[in-house]
Amino acid sequence: CRDPPGGTGASAIVQEVMEEEWTALQSEDRRLPSLWGPHGMAEEYDELAVLEEIQQELMSHEMSIIEEFERNLQFEQQYISSVVEGMDEMHIICPICHMNNLSINSHFLSCTCGLYINTKVRLNISPDVLQRLLEARVSEHMEDCLHNPVFSVAPNADSSPNLMISCQVCDYLSIVL
Fold this sequence. Notes:
- One of its GO terms (molecular function) is zinc ion binding.
- This is RPA interacting protein.
- It comes from Sparus aurata.
- It holds the Pfam family RPA_interact_C.
- With about 180 residues, the chain is α+β, with helices and mostly antiparallel strands.
- It has 2 domains: about 10-90, no CATH class; about 105-175, no CATH class.
- About 45% of the residues lie in helices and about 15% in strands.
- The protein has 3 helices and 8 strands.
- The protein has a 3-stranded antiparallel β-sheet with strand order 3-4-5, with no helix packed on it. A 3-stranded antiparallel β-sheet has the order 6-7-8, with helices on one face.
- β1 and β2 (about 40) form a beta hairpin.
- Residues about 1-10 have low confidence and may be disordered.
């Protein structure tokens, strides 16, 4: 598309739509001049004023579409960033309820099902360490027995409760934490 003399700053698409509309009007009324006169858009006819108003509406609509697209793009970028950040975090499903993710920090591990173990007295209990402990105990059990073990919390007289793994079929019992 060519820019009209003394251009209005309208985008190429808006100009193209305007030219198509004007050409359609010219085919109905042969007396209408060219859309772009020597000083830009001719203003001799009421039709030109209407077309100018349509052009403004089209440009306004185009800007709202662009703004909406930019908002959606920003939202998608934020969503993708949060998903990627979430992938960095290790999620360990509670071995007691098998439904919720454990909350693990330097002082305790807990679950909304009621599991709470104070880890302050045990050094370096991170999600990685806990996952390795759980995997090691399950693997150790699975070497001799193919049944699913269960996890439970057993009181400890010296400190906070222990997380235990046991199997009623093979009488396996071990402290995980």
